[in-house]
């Protein structure tokens, strides 16, 4: 059986690896982006000089041949689902028995005047990175539009090269649709501490061009003109499905799939960023462009292709990021605005760079989510509490189990417990410090 | 409206501040002074000259690194390590490599070229040991100085991380105390010059009959001889069981100390390929076998009354001393820092590391655990692993890292942008954890444990 995978990102490659592990099917991965799989999340580190391009490839180049995974560099322009053939931009056609669409995302653009100019780019693909590199030489200032995870990465990238950055954020506080107010404020402070020109409550109005058709300045919603040789558009991503539109494949924002990652056409599957799940699990969204969902989808689909039909189950929501020097982890449900039926327990370090938050259901005391800034918590432990609906006081007594900070780091769990006691007038005691043995016992 | 001053934040940081330029100038003057004395033969006023030459160097470097790190918010920044000529095998890297290598060649085989330099170290040698400086004192002092100065730099760079601060303080302490001051003072007290932190087989001499004979007049020497044996047979397995080999390699050992401090800017140059790992396993265990053979031959020689094996054992000992003791651990081990990374010797050559590694792999609580499914496969952990372990290969499948070569420096955990790795200890069997704690919500992948 011949399996063709469109896209060599984490979803497609994970599917390919596991299909190879469990079967002898012919596997071809087609990509127009790069010859080899790389970690998209690590693009920023190449620009910052932490790693070389080869270092962000999780597998050595010999791996693919040895595992009989054929890598093809081509751009597929059309799919004929009836004859089961793909058409590439060079005119060649390839046929398949099963097709896996893992085409990823593309950066959003919201119709701003000048958004197609030279020097205006998102940050998603290898080519985006090359563009950033190309425009960095002699760059006097970069303007970044959109206060999200990619925006702050891009700001850090230019900043690392001593290129002044102006960061336009539409909201009144960084990423405040996701982060609760104190955490969001912490990131605002931290961005400013680094000398990045953060402009909150400011939108892009237009991008102005010079005589060569290159961007030269932006105009903001406050009618401020900012000279810049580069504009980073980081206002989210959406499924990369353009070439599949107007075919019999059902697409809304992404390629619609059921819980088995099957599209409306038999033998055609979709995984990763390009997917829109018809009936997502509670607590999960239909489109989730994060690294691990792509990985889980790839592994899940490989089971199905190899004869064990398996439903996609991403489990309890989690995510992580790093805002310059401040690490961020979230487990479970943390809403930016606390719903009325929830209560919050929040502790922040006096230095303003660390915080721990536990949100819980007011009536039942059931813990709903963990939000960590500058502190590492252990996913398996948090997940078990969330899954079993553990009571906030049970969690607080054993909170040390969750601590994943390196040895000798101060443990702040007792401060969180004290905050709870102050808040509720109770007298909960912290009974457990961090340590792997107790964790293993707990997880058994 | 044109807005010239849009920023309320600080302007772009300068690449090199005025103070840093001053620091470079001072250090340059110090080096110049050293070179002049080195080349010029007899010095007029060695004490004041030494003080000013070394004082200028230390002060200059200190000013430079303070500015480099304290100007910026705390947090590890490896910005540009692959762009810089010094740290990415550019001209400066090669130049430093050649200078280091040349220094070792002089040290081992042409010490006469170091005579000019020695006089600068005489005052210190007289004060500490009560005798004139020789090339080994010059070496020991420069070595200790490098560990201390670059240790301070390391602490600035990683100042957000208590594990790194404490660990670096430890290697600085052991280098200064046990590998510099105590041996010096012992000499002054007419005792054998003993380095308590180096024992057989890293110090291949320490376990030989020659060493035993050499120590025979001294109680301290005899104690050290048996201390070394006890460390090898009992201390190493027990301590490694509880803490992993890091108790020695990245907390105590002088070779490790230099690699962790002076070698830190080069840690990413280690080779992470599977081939390198294969070579490493053959080489490092080969050296362990080699040193066992050499030592056994020497003892057999003594036992048989120097009848049977005399010629061979000498040849073996001398070739070990030349190939492993001088060329591998010195010339290649340190001289090639800017080319092959900071732990070439520890990874490919050190027989004690091999021995510690066997215990770490076979029977130790130590492992690096992975935080569920948070790994994004970025590769920072692998890149900055000085031992060339492909940490990412484990992290991205949620598998504990249990590797013979891991020295427990903790940098993988420190540079991870997602908080995925933690150095820790638990009794529970490794493969058990591998299966139970994967947080890919599909099914247990048939990973088992990576071989070795």
Helix- and strand-based class of chain A?
alpha/beta
Report the C-alpha radius of gyration of chain A, rounded.
24 Å
Assigned CATH architecture of the largest domain in chain A: 3-Layer(bba) Sandwich
* Largest beta sheet: strand ordering of chain B: 1-2
Task: Report low-confidence residues of chain A grouped into runs of 5 or more.
Answer: none
Give the tally of β-strands of chain B. 2
Structural class of chain B: mainly alpha
Q: Any idea of the CATH class of the largest domain in chain A?
A: Alpha Beta
CATH topology (level 3) name of the largest domain in chain A:
FAD/NAD(P)-binding domain
What's the number of structural domains of chain B? 3
As a percent range, the share of strand residues of chain A is 25-35%
Overall description:
The complex is a heterodimer of chains A (444) and B (452). With 444 residues, chain A is an alpha/beta fold. Chain A folds into 3 domains: 2-105 and 238-305, FAD/NAD(P)-binding domain (3-Layer(bba) Sandwich), CATH 3.50.50; 120-235, FAD/NAD(P)-binding domain (3-Layer(bba) Sandwich); 318-443, Enolase-like, domain 1 (2-Layer Sandwich), CATH 3.30.390.30. Chain A has 11 helices and 25 strands. In chain A, the strands form 7 sheets. Chain A has a 5-stranded parallel beta sheet. Chain A has a 5-stranded parallel beta sheet with strand order 9-16-10-11-12, covered by helices on one side. In chain A, α1 (10-22) packs parallel to α7 (291-305). The mean pLDDT of chain A is 96. Chain B is 60% helix and 2% strand. Chain B is globular, with a radius of gyration of 24 Å. Chain B starts with 17 loop residues before the first helix and ends in a 16-residue tail after the last helix. Mean pLDDT of chain B is 87; it is low at 1-13 and 433-452. The chains are: A alpha/beta (444), B mainly alpha (452). Chains A and B meet through α1, α6, β12, α7 and β21 of A and α6, α16 and β2 of B.
């Amino acid at each position: 059986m011949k399996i063709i995978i469109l896209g060599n990102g984490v979803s497609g490659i994970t599917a390919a690896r596991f299909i190879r592990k469990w079967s002898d099917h012919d596997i071809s991965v087609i990509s127009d982006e790069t010859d080899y799989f790389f970690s998209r999340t690590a693009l920023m580190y190449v620009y910052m000089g932490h790693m070389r391009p080869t270092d962000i490839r999780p597998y050595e180049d010999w791996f693919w041949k040895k595992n009989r995974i054929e890598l093809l560099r081509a751009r597929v322009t059309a799919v004929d689902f009836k004859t089961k053939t793909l058409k590439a931009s060079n005119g060649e056609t390839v046929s398949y028995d099963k097709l896996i669409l893992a085409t990823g995302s593309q950066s959003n653009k919201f119709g701003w005047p000048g958004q197609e100019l030279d020097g205006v780019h998102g940050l998603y693909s290898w080519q985006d990175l090359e563009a950033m590199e190309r425009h960095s030489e002699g760059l006097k200032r970069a303007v970044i539009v959109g206060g999200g995870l990619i925006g702050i990465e891009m700001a850090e990238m230019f900043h690392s090269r001593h290129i002044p950055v102006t960061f336009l954020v539409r909201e009144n506080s960084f990423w405040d649709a996701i982060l609760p107010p104190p955490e969001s404020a912490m990131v605002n402070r931290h961005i400013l501490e680094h000398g990045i020109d953060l402009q909150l409550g400011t939108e892009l109005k237009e991008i102005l061009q010079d005589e060569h058709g290159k961007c030269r300045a932006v105009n903001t919603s406050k009618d401020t003109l900012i000279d810049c040789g580069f504009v980073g558009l980081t206002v989210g991503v959406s499924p990369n499905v353009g070439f599949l539109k107007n075919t019999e494949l059902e697409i809304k924002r992404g390629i619609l799939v059921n819980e088995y990652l099957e599209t409306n056409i038999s033998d055609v599957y979709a995984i990763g960023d390009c997917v829109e799940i018809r009936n997502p699990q509670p607590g999960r969204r239909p489109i989730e462009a994060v690294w691990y969902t792509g990985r889980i989808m790839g592994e899940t689909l490989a089971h199905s292709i190899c004869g064990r039909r398996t439903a996609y189950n991403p489990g309890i929501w989690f995510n992580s990021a790093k805002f310059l020097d401040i690490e961020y982890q979230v487990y479970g449900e943390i809403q930016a605005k606390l719903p009325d039926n929830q209560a919050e327990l929040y502790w922040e370090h006096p230095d303003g760079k660390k915080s721990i938050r536990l949100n819980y259901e007011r009536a039942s005391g059931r813990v709903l989510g963990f939000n960590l800034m500058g502190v590492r918590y252990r996913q398996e432990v948090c997940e078990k509490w969330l899954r079993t609906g553990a009571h906030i006081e049970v969690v607080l007594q054993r909170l040390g189990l969750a601590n994943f900070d390196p040895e000798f780091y101060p443990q702040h769990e007792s401060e969180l417990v004290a905050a709870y006691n102050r808040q509720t007038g109770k007298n909960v005691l912290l009974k457990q410090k961090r340590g792997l043995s107790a964790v293993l016992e707990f997880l058994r | 409206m044109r807005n010239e001053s849009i920023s309320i934040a600080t302007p772009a940081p300068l690449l090199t501040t005025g103070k840093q330029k001053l620091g470079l100038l001072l250090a340059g003057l110090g080096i110049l002074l050293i070179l002049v004395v080195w080349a010029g033969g007899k010095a007029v006023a060695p004490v004041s000259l030494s003080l000013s030459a070394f004082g200028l160097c230390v002060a200059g470097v200190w000013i430079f690194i303070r500015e480099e790190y304290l100007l910026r918010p705390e947090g590890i920044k490896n910005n540009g390590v692959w762009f810089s000529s010094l740290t990415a095998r550019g001209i400066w890297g090669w130049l430093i490599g050649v200078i280091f290598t040349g220094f070792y060649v002089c040290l081992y085989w042409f010490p006469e070229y170091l005579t000019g330099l020695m006089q600068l170290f005489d005052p210190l040698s007289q004060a500490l040991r009560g005798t004139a400086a020789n090339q080994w004192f010059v070496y020991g002092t420069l070595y200790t100085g490098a560990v201390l100065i670059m240790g301070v730099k390391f602490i600035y760079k990683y100042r957000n991380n208590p594990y790194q601060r404490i660990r670096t303080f430890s290697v600085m302490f052991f280098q200064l105390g046990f590998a510099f001051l105590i041996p010096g003072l012992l000499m002054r007290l007419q005792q054998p010059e003993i380095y308590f932190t180096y024992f057989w087989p890293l110090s291949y001499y320490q376990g030989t009959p020659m060493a035993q004979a050499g120590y025979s007049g001294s109680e301290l020497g005899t104690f050290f001889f048996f201390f070394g044996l006890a460390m090898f047979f009992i201390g190493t397995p027990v301590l490694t069981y509880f803490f992993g080999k890091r108790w020695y390699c990245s907390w105590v050992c002088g070779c490790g100390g230099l690699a962790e401090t002076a070698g830190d800017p080069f840690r990413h140059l280690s080779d992470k390929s599977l081939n390198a790992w294969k070579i490493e396993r053959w080489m490092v265990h080969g050296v362990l076998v080699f040193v066992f053979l050499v030592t056994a031959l020497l003892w057999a020689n003594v036992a048989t009354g120097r009848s049977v094996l005399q010629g061979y054992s000498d040849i073996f000992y001398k070739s070990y001393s030349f190939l492993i003791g001088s060329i591998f651990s010195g010339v290649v081990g340190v001289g090639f820092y800017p080319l092959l990374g900071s732990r070439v010797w520890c990874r490919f050559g050190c027989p004690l590391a091999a021995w510690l590694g066997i215990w770490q792999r076979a029977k130790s609580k130590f492992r690096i655990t992975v935080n569920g499914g948070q790994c994004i496969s970025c590769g920072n952990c692998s890149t900055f692993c000085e031992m060339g372990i492909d940490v990412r290969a484990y992290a991205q499948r949620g598998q504990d890292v249990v590797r013979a070569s891991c020295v427990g420096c903790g940098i993988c955990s420190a540079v991870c942008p997602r908080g995925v790795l933690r150095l820790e200890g638990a009794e529970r069997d490794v493969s058990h954890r591998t299966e139970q704690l994967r947080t890919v919500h599909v099914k247990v992948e048939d990973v088992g444990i990576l071989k070795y």
